[in-house]
Amino acid sequence: MAPATPPMLQLMFFLVFSQYFVSGTNTNGGTNTTTFTLQNNCAYTIWPATLSGAGSPQLPKSGFELKPNGSISLDVSEPWSGRFWARTVCSVDNSSSASGGRFRCGTGDCGSGRIECNGSGGAPPATLVELTLDGYGGLDFYDISLVDGFNLPISIDVQGSKSCKSVSCAVDLNALCPAELSVVSDYKSVVGCKSGCDAFNEPRYCCTGAYSSPATCNPTSYSNFFKKACPQAYSYAFDDSTSTFTCPAALNYLITFCP
């Protein structure tokens, strides 16, 4: 969920997490289909992206443009695990004209050089939505993660089941981000807020080395900044108890950017 750095370690944790849950009981026999609807309520164009976990089929699109008020629906057969995020401040670099220009983004870039990410994850900082469908015990698991930092607000609404909780990080943390965590665009505006791990690459912020267990890796002032603003979201690697949500096999999920 780069070199052997904390973001890559986080992706490794995500893939292990996904593989564990997908290997659980599949009560639906792999025949049900879930629809993800992605809605852009931001005042600007974004480029959402998807990454499937280990053993899960790829979604019909791994990256696409979504203009203000635009939406797109993607179907996937269960069981499935993966993540969604949005890339922002994107453009085509025409300096590499031999290949028709390289697609680049200021936040969440997946490094493919194209709008499609083709199996690559997003570079921090990026707000993540992580889901496992029909996982352990036949349940869906879902969360919003700020472990890789923040680039825009996101919400998850479960459709088809009244018993499942909606989750959101609706605050624009870019406007509140400490200077030492801020990612600034060419136009001098803050477009992303790094995690303490990404900003400082120290074990106590990354839950690595001597801090690699829940007993030794505790919240820091930076993870507390994220948690105070978005109490339902993951703020650091071991923030499970208040940040993972379950649902009995929902039919559809609405993921809204800038809710």
From TrEMBL:
Pfam families: Thaumatin. It comes from the Eukaryota. Keywords: Disulfide bond, Signal. Residues 1-24 form the signal peptide. CDD domains: TLP-PA. Disulfide bonds join C42-C258, C90-C105, C110-C117, C164-C247, C169-C230, C177-C193, C197-C206, C207-C217. This is Thaumatin-like protein. It comes from Stephania yunnanensis.
